[in-house]
Write a structure and sequence with these properties.
The chain is mainly α and 210 residues long. It is 68% helix and 0% strand. The N and C termini lie far apart (79 Å).
Amino acid sequence: MTALSSLPRRGRPPKVARTHPDTREALLRVGMAIFTEQGFSATGIDAVLKQVQVPKGSFYHYFASKEAFGQEVLQNYAAYFAKKLDLWLLASDVPPLERLWNFVQDAKAGMTKYGFRRGCLVGNLGQEILVLPESFRAQLEAVLLDWQARLARCLTEAAENGTLHADTDCDAQAAFFWIGWEGAVLRARLAQNAAPLDIFIAGYLAGITR
């Protein structure tokens, strides 16, 4: 084989994994940041490639399409957020409702850090659902149901220790939280401050502890 024939063909993605195994993870990480800030529909693949500094051929080596890329970004975001929820909501040395309060404070700090440009990827995609590929609908609903179940377990602990009424419908209250929370996050981005998050969590906790 000559030296010339051993060179990769221009314009074609490599048939083997790149020498930098973190390229795929970098694409997903940058995609998560950009989609969280400006949404899926408004983001072209070129914007992701520019930040990661890889050619388009490499992108299609890892992902069959933008839709497939978006689904995997959402999957990674869901896994990341589930770990964050568990960090706060499973803190057994903290009273259950205080765990929820602490989660909100952490979320406020994160939004403040990025100047309220970034919100919740799930909420962002939910607002775009009418123009997204249909495959996103079931995936988004599954993520929200998972978050609801995690919060419901925390609220159940509060009902068991007497912080909440024993007959509290913890599943319904968990669903109510996430419906309201996504709206509060949107309003915080509009207002460019954390006041909507403070108003929501104060009202939510006051309502369920009456």
